[in-house]
Design brief:
heterodimer, A: 111 residues, five-stranded mixed β-sheet, 10 strands, B: 112 residues, mainly beta, seven-stranded mixed β-sheet, 0% helix
Chain lengths: 111, 112
Amino acid sequence: SQKIEQNSEALNIQEGKTATLTCNYTNYSPAYLQWYRQDPGRGPVFLLLIRENEKEKRKERLKVTFDTTLKQSLFHITASQPADSATYLCAPYNQGGKLIFGQGTELSVKP
Amino acid sequence: NAGVTQTPKFQVLKTGQSMTLQCAQDMNHNSMYWYRQDPGMGLRLIYYSASEGTTDKGEVPNGYNVSRLNKREFSLRLESAAPSQTSVYFCASSRGTPYGYTFGSGTRLTVV
């Protein structure tokens, strides 16, 4: 079955550093992959979409890579700030055209 | 802009009771979705509607029914609630593949 794996342990980093979150998927080859941010008690918020023919996508301090050979996406936040603290969800599209969500990685940025 | 509106925000049900979760979007999106989110399980798709008039099962449809009332509204019904349905329920909408989803703020449901 299609499976998504994200770092289960929380990531704690210092303000100003770059945060790197990993998403691995198995048993399928998504044409698109999305990343979302979720704050406690709220619904996920869409951040970025990357297509299988795009190696990298940037939006302000965010960067996403998509390696279809490794079946992995990396999500980077540069110059991280305490306001970036949240849970980040990876969501590749499955063959049926629906998003499958990973469990998310909790990021904590300390001042 | 309201985006996706879910009601109610909180609900406690007794086992066997029924209820309907309401969802409405004002973005003229074609597709709408219902997910549940449980600790350690991530978001799991219950039902979706690719367009007005169509609905399909997702990953975990048992115990639920849906209605796509019109393009704006997509409701989720629990006919006979069970403790295993205790969860946070999210409704979402999108323009379709591969566009991002817009989520509501969720309904926290407890079945006792």
